[in-house]
Amino acid sequence: MIKKLILVFLAVMLVLPMAGGVLKGVKMDDSITIDGKTLLLNGMALRKKVIFKVYVAGLYLPAKEKSAEKILGADTCRVTVMHFLRSVGAGKINGAWYDGLEDNTPGHSKELKAKFDTLAKYMEKMKKGGKIVFTYLPEKGTIVKVNGKVKGTIEGKDFADSLFSCWIGKKPGPGKSFKEDLLGL
Predict the structure, then answer these.
(1) Is 7 domain-assigned?
(2) Measured in whole angstroms, how far is the alpha carbon of residue 47 from the centre of its chain?
(3) Is residue 8 in some structural domain?
(4) Is the N or C terminus of the chain more exposed, i.e. has fewer CB atoms within 10 Å?
């Protein structure tokens, strides 16, 4: 009888969808729907600075993918959610964007730099519990939402690739283990 119950329990657990991920108290759904397309939670990562836990990020993709090159090479919908665990000033956030641009897109164009300038204008001081969501839609651009408000859309796959490279590029600002966690490695 106990063996039957265990087998039934295991069978149910294999059939039920995963409820998503939880990291440092931040829960993210296993999937989200954008423009009628389902994106899957690829991975979650914790951004730490010295001893401080800054934010938890989640990366959503059309299908699970462990290769940053394939993710950045594909012109498909992708989403990154940043859930802040502490207050961070807009200046520090913008500094990280510009560092990520320099580190991961060397020799970038003036036009791409101008897109990061636009991103910097969208930033505001983030308080504990605040959220920034970046949604890249091919042919539309990257929608930037800060604390539930759409700040604007920045056109171009070049911008999306440079932005997402800040987390999964060759020199991710938050570090190698952060990148690996987003990629599910």
Answers:
(1) no
(2) 11
(3) no
(4) N
Distance of CA 91 to the CA centre of its chain: 20
- Alpha-carbon span 18 to 26, nearest angstrom: 16
Looking at the DSSP assignment, which residues form a beta bridge with residue 83?
56, 131
Give the residue from 57, 18, 25 showing the smallest Cα distance to 164.
Answer: 57
Per-residue pLDDT of the chain (185 residues; tens, 9 = 90+): 555 434 334 444 443 344 578 999 999 999 999 989 999 999 999 999 888 999 999 999 999 999 999 999 999 999 999 999 999 999 999 999 999 999 999 999 999 999 999 999 999 999 999 999 999 999 999 999 999 999 999 999 999 999 999 999 999 999 999 999 999 98
Structure-token pair, residue 92 = 């520090």
- Domain range spanning residue 49? 19-182
In DSSP terms, 88 is beta-bridged to 126
The reply to whether 144 falls in a domain is: yes
Is residue 176 within 8 Å of residue 169, measured between CB atoms? no
Which residues are CB-neighbours of 82 under 8 A, at least 6 positions away? 55, 56, 57, 131, 132, 133
